[in-house]
Structure formats: C-alpha cells, structure tokens
Design brief:
Helix content: 40-55%
CATH class: Alpha Beta
Oligomer: single chain
CATH architecture: 2-Layer Sandwich
Shape: flat
Strand content: 25-35%
Distance between the termini: 48 Å
Number of strands: 4
Structural class: alpha+beta
Number of domains: 1
Strand order of the largest sheet: 2-3-1-4
Number of helices: 5
C-alpha cells in the first residue's frame, strides 16, 4: 500500500513539474562561424593566399585535427563595390561555448607554426601592404525546419 501511495505521489509531482521548454522557431541552431572580411589590394591575391597557406591553413589544419575547430573555409570572389570585401575566411566552432577556451587552445598551435608574438606581429604587419581587414562577424548556422 505504501508503494502504491508513493508511486501516486511521484506521478502527481511529475505531472505538476513544468515541461522542458520547446522552441517554436522555424529552424534549429547549429555550429558557430567566426568570420573575417578582407579586401585584397589589386594584384595581391596570389601573395596573400601564399602567405596564409603557411599560417592560417597550417594552424587550422592542426586545430581541426585536435578537435578544437570543426572546419574552416576561405571564400574568394569579386567585390560588389570598391569598399566591399573579396575574401571571407571562416572558422567553424561547435557552439558559442567553444569560444570560452578557444584562445588558450589556438595560441600554442600558432606559436609552434608562426613563431613567437614578435614573429607573428611581423607577419601580420607585412600583410598590411596586401590586404585590409574590413570586419569580423560571429554567426550561428541554422537549419530551416518544416
């Protein structure tokens, strides 16, 4: 009899607890993309891509191998106007929480590949001659639902 009463109380309490929140959004949330928008100076495309293949590509190949990032991409195309970007570099992270320890994980890889802070600064300073950073974006990928 005590078990029956206890079971009834548990069922009653469970029925009064709020249901887990459900979203009515017409999409599901996915990974996060860290995006850099770049405008390359005229005729400097090959020099820029050669430069980042030794740094950006190498760092994020290793970060991907270690599971720090999910993927990375570089998109290249024509600018829509003289003030528009023509290169977009994107790094895919599992979620926003992955940003909490991101730098602590990426910095050792960058130091091993690109050198110490002084060497990294020299590399980045040299790129000023061939490109301009127009902006940064952090965006979440979504998948539309029915």
């Amino acid at each position: 009899m005590k078990k029956l009463i206890l079971s009834g109380l548990i069922a009653l309490l469970a029925a009064t607890l709020p249901a887990p929140a459900q979203s009515n959004a017409p999409y599901s949330e996915g990974p996060v993309w860290d995006i850099i928008l770049v405008r390359l100076k005229h005729g400097m495309h090959d020099a820029y891509f050669k430069s980042i293949s030794k740094t950006f590509k190498a760092v994020f190949d290793e970060a991907k191998r270690q599971g720090i990032v999910l993927d990375y991409k570089i998109l290249y195309g024509h600018a829509a106007s003289p003030s528009d970007f023509n290169v977009m570099s994107m790094v895919q992270l599992k979620n926003y929480a992955a940003l909490d320890s991101y730098r602590e994980k990426i910095d050792p890889i960058a130091r091993r590949i690109e050198g110490d802070a002084r060497q990294q600064t020299a590399t980045f300073t040299g790129r000023v001659e061939i490109r301009e950073i127009l902006g940064y974006k952090l965006m979440r990928e979504i998948t539309l639902t029915d």
